[in-house]
């Protein structure tokens, strides 16, 4: 399931983020790549220990924790501290699958990557190319979102970033471990949650709301590992 989360950051926040990021020290993106992905990765990123990355990353996580669609779709258990990358001058990232287990540098905590996220920090007009292409059973999906918007997709997916042939593509990328490991289970829970909320808005006194909410929680209890 590939989900767009609009307006994770406001346009004012995006401008602030970009000012801090443009002034930061960038390094070769291969520092966080696994053996296989290092062969196809060509971009720059902020070091995981960069104070700018740590402070902006915290702001992203705080914004997500207030975002009902994100919480409902991801059911997050542990969120990896967001990282930041930049592609320009023909940079690209070839086909790869993200590493399955990530260790948080500051704490040593291990996170299983169930969902991968890209939060766009450049507007699509600022650069040519740079589409994130995600393969799933229905084919290849091209993702290029407005600044401040985020895409959430299963970390099991093969994906790539096409070469940036003009301008700069700045984004934040990170992963999370979900309370519900299986993508198909998360999809069912999201669909049920959206339907319950719709009935709650349209017919707030409907007696079946209680039954459906109970069903949602009992399914979550069945599938969650916390
Ligand atoms: Ni990746």
Could you describe the 3D structure shown?
A hairpin with a 2-residue loop joins strand 12 and strand 13. The protein contains 6 helices and 17 strands. It folds into 2 domains: 3-178, q2cbj1_9rhob like domain (Jelly Rolls, Sandwich), CATH 2.60.120; 183-223. The strands form 4 sheets. Strands 1, 2, 4, 5, 6, 10, 14 and 17 form an 8-stranded antiparallel β-sheet that branches. The protein has a 5-stranded antiparallel β-sheet with strand order 3-7-15-12-13. Strands 8-9 form a two-stranded antiparallel ribbon. The model has no long low-confidence stretch (mean pLDDT 95). Helix 5 packs antiparallel against helix 6. The longest helix has 20 residues, at 183-202. With 226 residues, the protein is an alpha+beta fold.
Cα-atom radius of gyration: 18 Å
What is the correct CATH architecture of the largest domain? Answer: Sandwich
Q: What is the CA-CA span between the terminal residues?
A: 22 Å
- Overall, the morphology is globular
> How large is the share of residues in beta strands?
25-35%
Q: What value does the average pLDDT take?
A: 95
H-E order:
EHEHEEHHEEEEEEEEEEEEEHH
Q: Structural class, please?
A: alpha+beta
